[in-house]
Amino acid sequence: MATITDKNTAVVTGASRGIGRAVALRLGATHHVVAVARSRPQLETLASEIRSGGGSCDAVEIDVTDAKAVARTLAGVRADVLVNNAGVGYMKPLLELSSDEWHTMVDVNFNALFHVTRAVLPGMVERGRGHIVMVGSIAGRSAFAGGSCYAATKHAVMGFSESLMLEVRDQGVKVSVVNPGSVATTFSRRDRDTSWMITADDVADAVIHAIDTPPRVLVHRIEVRAAIPKKG
């Protein structure tokens, strides 16, 4: 799977659309991108766009909740950057939330962080360098009605990220978490006014800012939200 290249390699999950796609396109200018998602057609479109801009990209169709598939597919990938972006949300009261919806959010939003990070982190530690960025949410430090599971998974992302940062920073690996507020992507309800929200590119800017810091600097946590929230 891996393309031979002189560039540093960036693995981006949830890369087929939204924030992940925006991040992958930005990283494509400076890194070889390993774009991970479940949608092959959208991944191929992304890879073509990166290549047309002079970059290189491997499109990797995989379900990040499948631990064995993740370990097998990412084995041997020398990741310099990992952006854990894959996420899903069902916003509804607990009594309306199905067991399948609950487990899907826990598996995609949280368990997948372990699977993907566990697959690429050993190589970073061995080489003494690397940067892992989690795309979390402002919901990771707050609560809202209808967010009993989603907010819980994003709180878990925060605990995971800070604990991992403390574990690996002495080994040359940085860990950052970018927490967006409301973002105008397909993640938002179709019937919702998104004109006031930040964009996927705005979040990608924050991710790149964290990655582009000098070796002596670690930006561990970034919160990015709309400057003027929707009234009412």
Structural account:
- Strand 6 (173-180), helix 6 and strand 7 (221-224) form a beta-alpha-beta unit.
- The chain is globular.
- The protein is of the alpha/beta class and 232 residues long.
- It has one domain: Rossmann fold, CATH 3.40.50.
- Helix 1 (18-27) crosses helix 6 (200-211).
- Helices cover 39% and strands 18% of the residues.
- It is built from six helices and seven strands, in the order E-H-E-H-E-H-E-H-E-H-E-H-E.
- A seven-stranded parallel beta sheet has the order 3-2-1-4-5-6-7, sandwiched between helices.
Quick overview:
With 232 residues, the protein is α/β, with parallel strands linked by helices.
Task: Throw out a few tags for this protein.
232 residues; alpha/beta; Rossmann fold; seven-stranded parallel β-sheet; 6 helices
Rounded to the nearest angstrom, the radius of gyration is 17 Å
Would you tell me the overall average pLDDT? 94
Residues in β-strands, percent: 15-25%
The CATH topology assignment is Rossmann fold
SSE order and pairing:
Layout: E1 8-13, H1 18-27, E2 31-37, H2 40-52, E3 56-61, H3 67-74, E4 81-84, H4 99-127, E5 130-135, H5 150-168, E6 173-180, H6 200-211, E7 221-224
Parallel strand pairs: 1-2, 1-4, 2-3, 4-5, 5-6, 6-7
Helix pairs in contact: 1-6, 3-4, 4-5
